[in-house]
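Think of the structure tokens as a kind of shorthand, similar to the way a musician reads notation: each symbol stands for something richer, in this case the local conformation of the backbone. In the example below we present two proteins back to back. Begin with the first one, reading the sequence and then the tokens, and try to describe in your own words what changes along the chain.
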Amino acid sequence: MYLPAGSPWRDAWNLDKVYAGGRTITVKADLHQMPIFVRVGSKVELGDLNREWTDAVAAANTRPDLKRLDTEVKAWFEKNK
């Protein structure tokens, strides 16, 4: 991945890793990780991407209670006729 010159770049997945700009680097990334780098000093705040990933996996592995959801939707429509 090429990092433009002029500033150092921080790995958004591992905030401890900072790379000098103006060069091409190779980074190891898991399948779910798209290499994302943010210019040091930038106001771009991505949050904790590893926590976002963990939360997303947990949500994807949780089966919804469809009967409860159906009851809630029907009650909402009855209330908002």
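Once you have a description of the first chain, move to the second and do the same.
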Amino acid sequence: MRTTQYEKVCYLTEQRDEPVYLVNLRTGMKGTSFGCTSAGETVQVRLDNGELDSWERLECAETTH
């Protein structure tokens, strides 16, 4: 995702408490955002199976359920 999309996801997730549904473009896994790390430009994701993961900005995109 572009930097502006990443910033939007982080704003919605951390400031408005509105998780964003994402897909990992490399693995195809899907999950909901619950945090961001700006230093590494990563998004913390709760996968559909309940596991937690961290994805780099460039390997994910917003998607629908």
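Compare your description with these statements about the second chain. The beta strands are 21-24, 30-37, 42-47, 52-56, 60-62.
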